[in-house]
Design goal:
This protein has a two-stranded antiparallel sheet with strand order 1-2. The chain is elongated. It is mainly alpha-helical. The protein has one helix and two strands; from the N terminus they run ββα. It has one domain (8-53). The chain has one helix at 31-53; strands at 17-18, 27-28.
Length: 54
Amino acid sequence: MRTEPRCSECDSEDPNIISLRDPARERYCGRFCLDKGHENFTRWIRRANAEVAS
């Protein structure tokens, strides 16, 4: 069983990009997955801020 990190977006093996914008320091395998991860994180932050403001 492999214990190495996997891509946070597509679950492929050997991700080589670590997201510094995300506090969880998620790992991504390529630019596409990194961009999708940032989009999802930004949506989550906006939803959380809207819920706090309401």
